[in-house]
Predict the 3D structure of the following.
Amino acid sequence: MKIVGLTGGIGSGKSTVVRVFGDLGVHWVDADDVARDVVEPGMPALAAIAEHFGEGVLMADGSLNRAALRQKVFAEPDERIWLERLLHPVIRKELVRQLQPEDYPLPYVLLVSPLLLETDQRGLAAKIIVVDVPESVQIERTMARDDNSREQVERIMAAQMAREDRRSQADAIIDNNRPLNEVERQVCELHNRFLFEFS
Ligand code: ADP
């Protein structure tokens, strides 16, 4: 089973594009969802976090208080490293587990991740798809979706990989500065290419 990585900056259209692959029957896993799954109440990683940082990082119902945890690691590089060392292997293991569907007829699955190229998740992917739009479109769409200010979106983008760096690492680029039906056509072409290449 081949894993194809799908990445792109905030608001580039990863979720939109992956839904089109999903409609074609392609199994996909979102790394952000998995990162949330592994710190659900009852998971060992959440217990380790509470033991390390104290019960103050938990909500009354036992779930993770993300804002409190962010505060703890924000100005403390050692604590951030501790947290990443704990979570990265756990997330990776869970990603690999979820990327192996049973009785699956296709030769590839998709790993959707905003940080695919920045983390060791990259090593999981046989091919990289980059969902690409100009920065101005990224900003407009994210502002409309999240009700964020331009400054907030620009700050997030500044912390992510630059557009050209991302594009230069792509095996395939989906131009998402297009009407949805044209995006669907690009996805179909890519799907057929992968079916051919991986079987
Ligand atoms: P990401 O998952 O990369 O953050 P989304 O898929 O959520 O991005 O897309 C960001 C916003 O742009 C969403 O509101 C989405 O509906 C919209 N969008 C995505 N692709 C297109 C497109 N081709 N044309 C118009 N709007 C789009």
